[in-house]
Amino acid sequence: MSVNLRIKYLGNPKLSKRNRPYKYQLDYFLNGKRKRETIKDVAFHPSDTKEERKQKNKIVNRIKSQLEIELGNAKNGLISRQLQKANFITYFEQLGNKKSEKTKTAWDNTLKHLIEFQGPKLTFENISVNWVENFIEHLKSEGLANNSIVTYLNKVNAALNQAIKEKIIIENPIKNIDRPKKEETEIVFLSKEEIQKIICTDFWDNDAKNAFLFSCYTGLRASDIKNLKRSNIKDNKIQLTQNKTKNAVYIPLNYNAKKILEKQSHNDDFVFKLSDHICSMNRTVKKLIKLAQIDKKVHFHSARHTFATLLVSAGVNIFTISKLMGHKDIKSTLVYAKVIDEEKQKAVDSMPNLNF
Questions:
Q1: What does pTM read for this prediction?
Q2: How does strand 237-241 pair with strand 233-234?
């Protein structure tokens, strides 16, 4: 279906058109009715250079072509034009509400920043390359860490990709920008000696203490530890579907893990009685670490890091470790090998220098 471009002049009508800014309107017919939509994010100014005008025209023509493709398919086109008027903020919130507790926190934080930047309403059709770039600049102006910005942008990207699947939009504008890259963060893990200190530390919450130690020897995430049932343990092996990745994992129990299970002999369906909130579990772990006099910024996920680094240090094949961790990508496991190499280098560098 044909879409025409119309010029909409802005500013003081007493000035000549040559001296006034303007925007383009999309002029088309839908359901027998004439529609005109202003392309809001692309404004032409008298001061624009020839190159600036050329780039803006490219954007306008791409938007025009996308609309023609949508309208060319009567079924999907009609649905899409209606849904593009829907509120992306509401859509994003609904997607976030379906996420697991740990993941939902990141979606909730992203939602908060979206509303701070945009307000409670943002239609799909107004999400453009320019809008995404401005949102990134807003996050930077808030003084957020680079990795937090990457996380929030990833959530918006995931929501837009889902909108493509549901035929609400046909293109994700984020793919057309240079996105900030995630920076490597320090992996905090415990040594055998530090684990022993925790074992020997009297603590008021034995379930939390034992759950943390159990993760050190099984690599289970906090969400999987929290939901671990006795029915998941068969033939000295943990068998479950990971809450985060939905991958099935089979983890043989070693001597230490079996000893911890013996301590959890209460007649409850769940192996560990833990808080429903990951943040609360992390606060409890930090109190345990402080009581054990370990000078590291440890959180519950550090136990999973500990499991991986202990295996790498013991010379276990990296592919075997990847399977035990339930990683989808071997790259996620290789980071632990790199950490151990760095620790070895630190150990060598700590030797006293001699005079030759």
A1: 0.58
A2: antiparallel
